[in-house]
Amino acid sequence: MLISYKWLQSYFEDKLPEPEALSERIAFSLAEVEGIEKNADDVVLDIKVLPDRACYALSHRGVAGELSAILNLPLKKVEQPTIKVGKVRSVEFEIADGNLCRRHIGRVIEGITVGKSPDWLRERLESVGQRSINNIVDATNFVTLDMGQPLHAFDADKVKGKVTVRPGRTGETVVTLDGKQIPVDSSIVVIADEDGPLDIAGIKGGKKAELDYNTKAILLSVANFDPVSIRRASVKTGIKTDASKRFENNLTPERARVGMDEITSVIAALCPEAVVGGETDVYPKKAGQKQVSFSPDDIRRMVGISVSDTDISDCLGRLGIHTEKQGKEFVAQVPYERTDLSIPADIAEEVGRIIGYDKIPAVVPSKGKEKVEIPKSFYYEWKIREFLVSAGFSEVMTSSFAPLGDVEIEKPLAEDKRFARQNLQSNFEKALKLNVSNAPLFGSEDVRIFEIGKVFPVKGEHTGLILGLKHAKKQKRNESYVLEGLIQDIEKSLGIEIETKVKTSINYGVMFEANLDGAIQKLSESQKWDISIPVVQSKKFIAFSLYPLIVRDIALFVSLDTTPESVAKIIKENAGDLVVRGPELFDEFSKDGKKSLAFRLVFQSFDRTLSDEEVNKIMEKVYVALTIHGWQIR
Amino acid sequence: MNPLVVSKVLGHIHPISRAVFDIRRIFEDLGFAVAVGPELETEHYNFDVLNFPKDHPARDMQDSFWLRSQNATNADFTQTNAEGGIQRESASSQRPSVRSLLRTHTSPVQVRYMEEKLKAGIMPPYKIVVPGKAFRNEATDATHEAQFFHVECLYVDKNVSMAQLKGTLIYFFKKFFGEDVEVRFRVSFFPFTEPSAEIDMKLKGKWLEMGGSGLVHPNVLKAAGVPEGYGGFAFGVGIDRLVMLKYGIPDIRMFYNGDLRLVNQF
């Protein structure tokens, strides 16, 4: 919620800390401050009040009350508005279901003039980014932003007969203030007159009794609704408003009283000639005053701070929570608006944050004597990782989503992510292909990867293992044969038999997928952690290019006494900055008094796709340099 | 080992797995065991027992990956009753929810673990860390992925405090990132903790948001069947974030496309 610094200041005699410092205090003890913006001679704070505190802190007065507690600054005394009541028409009010609408206060004011708002009112609204509409609507918005209670004013002349808060009826529609036709039904509460719904209760005003510049009499409606039904109606109608958000957070019906008093006095001041009618308060079940009993020892134990009983009551007192000692226990009288407080742990949070979370010391719990157990699946999955890494296989992870499968997701992120993967293979295949195409970057055309992860067949889930292998071209050994041997080795070393195995050959190599669950289940519990993995290679990630690479091999004859290093040096000097790997010697032999050397270079750019021609030109330069040395390119 | 596959070069462990490996070791020193649970979770364990109100927005379709195939039984939980009025539901007065989803955190393992222990007649203390994959239905970018790894930590005992929570976090982050880190709490709100705190960590002079924490809400312990007299702390941190910060990896999506250009660096 946007909160004006100047508006906040109006609640205090003392000067508040500067906006930056104030935000810091708010961030630690109340809620995240998502923005601080200068606005003419004011500063606007965007405070992200979380759902638990939205019942009381979603207003300037709510935040001021918090600041008073956090900073230990007294609030200015606010004068209770006095309301002079005169004679107006009488309107009947009714609540059909006291569980849906917990309170409804109505009042008619006659002889008003709808017009421009005075400067002070316009400025207040504009300071938090709201547009001024007319004096009456502005007054309702102002009171809500000031004290948190949503309020509504109908044109009283457009309201016919008794006003009832009731569930909507199938077939009824509400035309909202912004002109949308919203069909209602029994799951959506409406405020209705004899002819039908006037608005969607607690969510959005209707056109039927909208104020206009001819409005002479208004009907003020200040209500309180069941948070659950408001939320559901808001989801159902697709309308989310400031008011619906407030009601969803369980405002106390007690606040309706304060809201009505304040809106009445603001309007009476704006329209001095108006006649204010008496109010009708339909309040089927008065909210009870909540009490929370707690032991100060429990509070100290939970927060982990040594704090005296007096300090605890003092912290709570600053929040308007009065405590009384009853034997060893304290009884806290919870203010009506604090619908968030009901158990001792809630009290512990209040004490902790007012004392300051920064005052909580750091204590490492003792290790305990119990043996630290290791889940079987976790242990053996790591055993397999350890084994595979030692066999030169690297671990990859791929997406758990797939375009096809057995377990369909209700609202998928994308068409190709409609299912939870039924196997590892479909996504792993892409990874194998990717890595085969990048193999020159790794200095070997052998690609060995594996993945261990959950897959989702028709029922339940199991842990899958998949191996992928692509041999370098010159290797003659059959990939399937190697993988089968490897699986056998895993089985042998763990003493298991892996049941389901699926072998797939693709252009980019061979994949072997297995279900680990059955096999691991049969193993005995692991007694101790004896797994080691290679030490980490790098402390810092090095960015890699996402553009295609080009590989060039270069072979040449040199004299027997020429070292490969001296040749590599010349190649490197002439090959330029686009070389990301190499020159790497991959072949060397001597024949007829000459030595043959073969080097590999990998070219890649960080900002574009390299063309063959571009690399050809570089290679020309390399050839020339090598030829100058008297070496013969093969 | 089969001589055909003996490699001169060792393979590489995925950096996320490496973090899991390190986390296990760090927490073992404090007496915490690893616990695991299913990725395909019920609404009951993912939300109900963690004290999420029936109407919590996190349960909305757009925030979680609910499963279609197992949704048929959900008819029991429609929003209106026969009379057409709105049926009010509170988390506690419910039959277990039967909808399934890809878990949105590894926190459900908290209650699964406690239930299992109590069933076996084992009373607290319970000390576990739960690393594992979790899912949230959100648009992906460099710092958000619909799938990620989460680690949940739970300690249940008599006299568990926010001070121990802080101490454990500092111990963990120092072991993971190095001695030069600081931890601070900011007040926050989570349905399954009270008091709740946002965890900030200072790394190389910069404060970073690391995750949520707090004392286990009494309703969670009650849902698990833990008798009165016990309390606990819990925290949850994204492992992806830990790894990204530790090694300076700029994009979370790199973890899940099977790319050795990432994995081979570690």
From TrEMBL, chain A:
It is found in: Cytoplasm. This is Phenylalanine--tRNA ligase beta subunit. SMART domains: B3_4, B5, FDX-ACB. Keywords: Aminoacyl-tRNA synthetase, ATP-binding, Cytoplasm, Ligase, Magnesium, Metal-binding, Nucleotide-binding, Protein biosynthesis. The lineage of its organism: Bacteria, Candidatus Kaiseribacteriota. Its cofactor is Mg(2+). Mg(2+) binds at D340, D346, E349, E350. GO terms for molecular function: ATP binding; magnesium ion binding; phenylalanine-tRNA ligase activity; RNA binding. Binds 2 magnesium ions per tetramer. It comes from Candidatus Kaiserbacteria bacterium GW2011_GWA2_49_19. Belongs to the phenylalanyl-tRNA synthetase beta subunit family. Type 1 subfamily. The keyword NADP does not apply. PROSITE patterns: B5, FDX_ACB. GO terms for cellular component: phenylalanine-tRNA ligase complex. Its main location: cytoplasm. Its EC number is 6.1.1.20. One of its GO terms (biological process) is phenylalanyl-tRNA aminoacylation. Transmembrane segments: none annotated. Signal peptide: none annotated. It catalyses: tRNA(Phe) + L-phenylalanine + ATP = L-phenylalanyl-tRNA(Phe) + AMP + diphosphate + H(+).
Automatic annotation (TrEMBL), chain B:
It catalyses: tRNA(Phe) + L-phenylalanine + ATP = L-phenylalanyl-tRNA(Phe) + AMP + diphosphate + H(+). It is found in: Cytoplasm. It holds the Pfam family tRNA-synt_2d. GO terms for molecular function: ATP binding; metal ion binding; phenylalanine-tRNA ligase activity; tRNA binding. Its EC number is 6.1.1.20. Its main location: cytoplasm. GO terms for biological process: phenylalanyl-tRNA aminoacylation. GO terms for cellular component: cytoplasm. Keywords: Aminoacyl-tRNA synthetase, ATP-binding, Cytoplasm, Ligase, Magnesium, Metal-binding, Nucleotide-binding, Protein biosynthesis. Residues 23-265 form the Aminoacyl-transfer RNA synthetases class-II family profile domain. PANTHER family: PHENYLALANINE--TRNA LIGASE, MITOCHONDRIAL, PHENYLALANYL-TRNA SYNTHETASE. This is phenylalanine--tRNA ligase. It comes from Candidatus Kaiserbacteria bacterium GW2011_GWA2_49_19.
